[in-house]
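Q: What would this complex look like in 3D?
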Amino acid sequence: MTPASFPARGLADRLTTLFWRHPRILLVLLLTPPLLWLGVVYLGSLAALLLQSFYALDSFSGLIVPEFTLKTYAQLFTQSNLSIILRTLLMASAVTAASTIIAFPIAYYAARYAKGRLKAAFYLGVMLPLWSSYLVKVYAFKLILAKEGIVTWVATSTHTDWLLTAALSLPYVGGNSLATSYLGTFTVFCYVWLPYMILPMQAALERVPTTMLEAAADLGATARQTFWTVTMPLALPGIIAGSIFTFSLTLGDYIIPQIIGNSASYIGMAVYQLQGTAGNIPLAAAFAVVPILIMLVYLTLARKAGAFDAL
Amino acid sequence: MPPAVEFRAVTRHFGPVKAVDSVDLTIAEGAFFAMLGPSGSGKTTCLRLISGFEQPSAGQIRIFGEDVSATPPHLRNVNTVFQDYALFPHLTVLDNVSYGLMVKGMGKTQRYAKAEEMLALVKLGSYGHRKPAQLSGGQRQRVALARALVNEPKVLLLDEPLGALDLKLREAMQDELKALQRRLGITFIFVTHDQSEALSMADSLAVFNQGKIAQIGTPAQIYTQPATRFVADFVGSSNVLPPTLTQALGGPAKWSSLRPESLRLAQTGPLTGTVQSQRYLGTGTRITLTAQGTELAAFLPAGQPIPPEGTQISLTFPPNALHIMDDTP
Amino acid sequence: MRSDAPLSLKLTAGAGLLFLHLPILLIFLYAFTSEERSFAFPPPGLTTKWFAVAWNRADIWPPLILSLQVAFLATILALILGTLISAAMSGAKFWGRDQLSLLIILPIALPGVITGIALRAAIPMLHLDFSALTIVLGHATFCIVIVYNNAVARFRRLSGGILEASADLGANAFQTFRHILMPNLGTALLAGGMLAFALSFDEVIVTTFTAGVGAASKTLPIWMLDELIRPRQRPVTNVVAMVVFATTFLPILGAYYLTRDGAETAGAGK
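A: Here is my prediction, written as structure tokens for the whole assembly.
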């Protein structure tokens, strides 16, 4: 008869026994390298950033004085810096709202009606632009929005150039050309972040069970009532999840307004320019804390709305 | 000869929850043993303690007399048929079945020959080249069985082995498993929440309740002489009579049980009440009534007149049918 | 439910998809334009000469090669670290598990400029010089989550039983890893790695903060950014943009096909 157990045959068996008796050893072995990386290098960097924001730049020597002060944060509240923050927030809100509206029909169609190959095509059609080169996409809009570019050409050849002229002559958002106006910056933001809105929205819409829609219809709801009382409330967490991306990404971006826009500054641009040419790392760090705080508030609200389950 | 499996005061807790609470258990070699209980009663944890996927918080487990507290699952000569079969999706049926032999270092020709032999035994001789996804539920179950048995384990553990099969297939597999166990002589231990499955397949069983064993015995013992109110109620839904009623029927002032099928219609009898509902079951009809303040069920075999709902009836039973239980709930 | 969509919905959905794709096609068109100083539409003439010009431009090759190297190294690091975390997270619950999952997504949840400026502030503190290696460091940090997402989804889908079944049949941890875990996790890791590669290859925001000065840290996206701000031969930039697009497009498509049968289709969350 064979025995009730086999002897350990070598190191592999003995190590397996050790991991079995003390699962924590395996856990520690698995987690040590990534924790060193993310916990020490990355979190350490964020901590260093936070620390720097409490230092100040000596205005005479141009050197960083490593002493605790709130002076740098106070600088955020000057007129010009406040307008940068406000402008960024307005832009992020506008982009989020517009993305939601543009994304909805795509997400709704893909979730409700597309089947089989068409569904796969829709999915790829959203996923590829999501992942493909950010810079290439921004560049594409430089071509499109240029004064001599395709938008002007289409407007001229369809005799709708009056519309373009009217849009560009709007106060504040207009400008010399699309490429050098708030309208242009806004369009590119919407384009670049749109897929981030579509995917979570589609996922949330797909999770609304068809039986529930049938139940609503069965109870006498019209298609419109079903949509507003059943579909929308259930899909809302997905929409909020998508808005986390569009909002956060707009808050931190500094490339798009640098390439397409009227050279008005945004938080991301301020951070970049302050640390680079100005060498004012403390103020750059303080600026960087602003989107972190805004996103923390946003994420807390989103978590309350159940958006995390939709991520 | 030591018993196949022995639990000595085994406790396993998860945080504050005692999944298994100081269990003593002896399973003889060659037995077809069932662990029966509702979900969360500790039966599956007991099975996982034998396979080694759980380790006891206190107490000792012996397999064929050998203390296995330091032996990890892969060195135990015990194999499991998992509830969801856990077949390796990327391997063919033949590679699934020969996996255990492969990791123990057996050569390809030899292990394939043994695996083919085992597949023939479970009547899947021509399915070796398929992937698990191409099999039906019943076929996957057989592959899982062959994959475990090819290693010639000392003990085979089966976790709800028939749970995922439909009724007809389940009945056929019950007979097949029993025949297979007789033929191979290996100790089979299976976990189930289905009392009819446990009663019909096992030659002895343990009924679990809240981490403890409520009763161990043969199917007949468990069925006719339930030790506690829980066993009487869980196994075959017996009538549980409170001490006052037991006493009124001529017994001691203790809880007792009375099987529905031991009750007979009579002109006069110790139990009288009004028929409240009746349920036709094919082999007979089950009626319920309230007699002396206790709700009772009686099973009346087919072929006799069934009193309609609302009629007053009397019931009688053979004197030895009233089974006195101990006081544990 | 109606099985057919209203025409207005079909049209708006279709228009939305076109809006996502037409701009990229325009990039391709402008790579063939004969006009080098402006983005005039329609292009006055078509030519293929810019491909030859781009091929012979000495300032394109080193950034291209550097970008490939950086993406390769960052992917390897992310694969190792991401797999380790996903293995730990798929096992038993442990203290700090929720905090760890938050930590993993942080580099991608926070705007890139934050990760960038944080590393910019910290790297000198570690007495490191900005170089191609610090670019890799930054990229690996946000690529971990990509690999992790793919691997952990696959771990979840794997019937948990098969690892136990392997041990039950006598395999030690290393045999289980080799014979059961790797074959089942392999495509998810490959998909995660390909996405991480694509992401690293065209990353520009974190890169600008972690790159050193000079040609030795000039990745292809940084080269492109320079061209966007100070254009020279515009169609050459388009040729490079096509190359960048293709280099990211193919791995993304590959990742999709590797994981499309599962519930965890790659790329669903960037």
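A: To summarize the key features: The longest helix of chain C spans residues 61-90. The radius of gyration of chain C is 22 Å.
Q: Very helpful, thank you.
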